[in-house]
Design a protein that fits this description.
Layout lengths: L4 H7 L6 E6 L10 H8 L3 E5 H4 L10 E5 L4 H11 L4 E6 L9 H11 L4 E5 L4 H9 E2 L6 E4 L7 H14 L3 E4 L8 H13 L5 E6 L7 E6 L14 E5 L5 E6 L2 E5 L11
Parallel strand pairs: 1-4, 1-5, 2-3, 2-4, 6-13, 7-8
Antiparallel strand pairs: 8-11, 9-10, 9-11, 12-13
Amino acid sequence: MEMSPSQSQNNTHTPTGSLAVVGIGPGSPDMLTIAAEKAIKNADIVIGNDFYINQIPHLFTHQEVIKSQMGKEVNRAKQAIALAQDKHVVMVSGGDPGVYGMAGLILEMAERIAPDLKIDIIPGVTAASAGAALLGAPLTNDFAVISLSDLLTPRDVIKKRIRALCTAGIPIVLYNPKSRTRTSLFEDVVDIAREHLAGETPVGIVKDAYRPDETIIVTTLANVMDVFDSVDMHTVVFIGGEETRMLRRYADARGMFTPRGYHRKYVY
């Protein structure tokens, strides 16, 4: 039997909970924003990849904690949206949730299955910002960010984008540069960069930024394959642009610097 408009409205469930997609930064508690910390502490349920959940145990008191694994992003998003119908749920995302994080998937899915659900996106310190700070100031002017993960983006598309960016002469930040099974794409990207950029172009490699095993390497495009084994999924690679140069701040430490352009206008 067809329901009347009033009956249909009475059976419509309006969510009483909420969902926050929270960026926790590069992993150090010092890099967590106040807004992110507050959202996690006030949540009824915290859900996320176990790698990220394990970075914030100090924030858990009364919350139910649900750990998931890499590759289960769709299931994790569905579960978070379902739980948020009547609970205050936090979906934890490494770095910034809007930069290769969970924010896009959550919003895309919720638009179809839970359009009335209250969703907040709380930003975090992304890997490009964290790594750049440790290197000096390689991203002071225009730059681009590219992920080398071909799980969701075809390799040909990634290489096309890399080629276009190398011709633009701006610094490029590589996320997910190399995994145990995906190594050749990083080699291809280096070959493409060498076609368009000078061999002395600075290259910065930052691994485990702001975590106990933090490693920082500054080399050149000509020599970057010498440290090939240092690159993995916990690494961010910075390929300098046309104006990027080595920055020697101390006798035994090098960084990277890209001028903003003040030197062309002012004398200092």
